Amino acid sequence: MGYTRVRPGRTERTRSVRRVLWWVLGLNIAVAGAKLGYGVFIDSISVTADGFHSLFDGTSNVIGLIGLSVAARPADRDHPYGHTKYETFASAAVGALLLFAAWEVGSSAVERFGNPGAGPTVDAVSFVVMLATLAVNVAVTTLERREGNRLGSEILRADASHTASDVFVTVGVIVGLAAVRLGMPLADPILGLVVAGFIVRAAYRVLHSAGATLSDTARIDPAEICVAALAVEGVLGCHDVRTRGSSDEVYMDLHVQVDPAATVAEGHAIAERVEKAVCAAFDNVVDVIAHLEPLDDYQLRKTAAQERGGML
Fold first, then answer.
1. Contact 146, 20 (CB under 8 A)
2. C-alpha to C-alpha distance for 54 and 215, rounded to whole angstroms
3. Which of 185, 214, 243 is where one domain is finished?
4. How confident is the model at residue 117 (pLDDT cuts 50, 70, 90)?
5. CB-based contacts of 195: which residues, under 8 Å, 6+ apart?
6. Which of 64, 118, 156, 188 could bridge across to 148 with cysteines, CB 3.0–4.6 Å?
7. Torsion of Cα atoms, 266 then 239 then 84 then 6, to 10°
8. Are residues 228 and 290 in the same domain?
9. How many Å apart are CA 170 and CA 228, to the nearest integer?
10. How many whole angstroms separate alpha carbon 177 and alpha carbon 185?
């Protein structure tokens, strides 16, 4: 037994998501290049740090593109569950790079506290560059969120949220530049530390998400799954529910209990209906295996013990 969901239109949807990611990647690289280049030119830690933050927005686009390409490969003999975890491995690598960038930015800011000097050179061009990049970030966030909702893409919605955080960071950097312009040079390293904190937070989210997938963290409450299974005619009990995978591609197995007098053919038909019903109830479930068991005294005791322990 076992049921794998076939998702119609996935190829065209993948192409559409990929096109959006390529456009966003180009814009993010342009924004990061402008901030990094100008930050180095005026010797501003906060602007340079914001540039690193924007650069990793582009990196997340690359991760999305790689993930879409590799994840699209069908399951094979060596990868019977498919290739989707390659996207998770890549995202974990990005998380590590984010931590390294935060360390570099934070170290530079701390060093500047000990030797503040004259501070960065802030003029009208500084505000033009930052406001222009801010406008691009707002446009990117709006585009990705709209297309993510239209296409039902977790990658685009997540990346839109990442870029939205960059908008708030850039606003803070602009405020810091204004403070430097008013004669407060220490505002620059202070904002550098703030941006480093945002980078650490982004790294934590990336690594936490990757860790949940790689450690096979349960993705759906077993009680909710049992509700869907028990709604199928012929199912008398449900337990031993296990889920794994990414948040938008869940693999599941569960035990369903039926009348001990049911024939093998009847039990098999019930299990198949359960597998299809669970996939219909949860959009992110792509594969279900239902193990059939007779509802006898042993199974009743087993289910009761799991209910007491909070594990169906």
1. no
2. 29
3. 214
4. low
5. 46, 49, 50, 52, 53, 105, 169, 172, 173
6. 156
7. 30
8. yes
9. 46
10. 9
For the stretch 272-288, pLDDT in tens is: 999 999 998 998 888 89
**Length in residues, the chain:** 312
Nearest to 299 by CA among 286, 312, 290, 287: 312
pLDDT per position as a tens digit, 177-195: 888 888 887 877 887 788 7
What are 17-75's pLDDT values in tens digits? 788 888 888 888 888 888 888 888 888 877 887 788 777 777 777 777 776 677 667 77
pTM: 0.68
Q: What percent of the chain has pLDDT above 70? A: 87
Q: How confident is the model over 235-244, as pLDDT tens digits?
A: 998 888 999 9
**Co-location of 200 and 227 in the same domain:** no
What letter represents residue 307's amino acid? E
78 Cβ partners below 8 Å, 6+ apart? none
Tokens of 90: 């890549």
Lateral strand order in the sheet of 249-258:
3-4, 285-294, 249-258, 237-246
Choosing from 214, 231, 247, the residue where a domain stops is 214
Task: Determine the distance from the C-alpha atom of residue 297 to the mean position of all C-alpha atoms in its chain, rounded to a whole number.
Answer: 44
Considering the domain architecture, whether residues 17 and 160 belong to the same structural domain is answered as: yes
> Do 150 and 295 have their domain in common?
no
With H, G, I as helix, E, B as strand and everything else as coil, classify residue 7.
Answer: coil
Contact status, residue 105 vs residue 199, Cβ threshold 8 Å? yes
Asked if residues 66 and 90 have their Cβ atoms less than 8 Å apart, the reply is yes
Query: 162 and 60, same structural domain?
Result: yes
Residue 304 belongs to domain spanning: 222-308
- Residue 244 parent element (H or E): strand 237-246
Q: Which residues contact 135 (CB under 8 A, 6 or more apart)?
A: none
Which distant-in-sequence residues (6+ apart) come within 8 Å of 206 by Cβ? 91, 92, 94, 95, 98
